[in-house]
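Sequence in, structure out. Go.
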Amino acid sequence: MSHVLNDEERMALDDRIAKAEKKTGTQIVLALIERSDAYPEIPWKSFALGVSVSSLVVLILNNLWPFTTPAMAVLVSIVIILGTGTGLALLCVFIPDVARLFLSADRAEAETRQYAESLFLAREIFSTPDRRAVLLMISLFEHRIVILPDTGLAGQIDDAGTAEKIISGMRPHLKAGRLAQALDAGLDGLENLIIHDGKSISPAVELPNTIIQEKGA
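Output:
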């Protein structure tokens, strides 16, 4: 995965994370993931659609302007049908915006959530003694945002409604491709939502402020 944030943006966000952690008494981990799943079915779905639509087009064309010979009809049909299906499948492979058209919202939501939970465990975000930690993850291909708090923040951001308030403030920036601003808006939302418990965070259990950037599945 090529770095989607430049050095200046990463340094600014690292500083923002530290300030937000001090204000909220919470360890905050930001993550940018290229895609949460490989979605191998997407090219096949697009191929099937391309074949189906082009088959109908060939049938209509043959009825309006019949092919001169059966051999010509077979050749033209194969070229148009397979060419359209293959072309659409290739577009899905190389152009994310096209591939996203064949991804259901429920599937995108489930896969992004699953990846966030896996990342939460793999990075041991649960390791703070008071369990006051939260993962804020953006999955770029799916255009999805996940906020995953640890148990120490129960009652503050574990409710879907409270998390959605933060996410809704990030979406316009994400849609426009302003990733640094999206993450900054997420930090603002967490700062406004999480109430400091009055305890200090021990340096021995601090999680790195460096933003996680992964290619994903």
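Check: The two ends are 11 Å apart (CA to CA). The longest strand covers residues 27-35.
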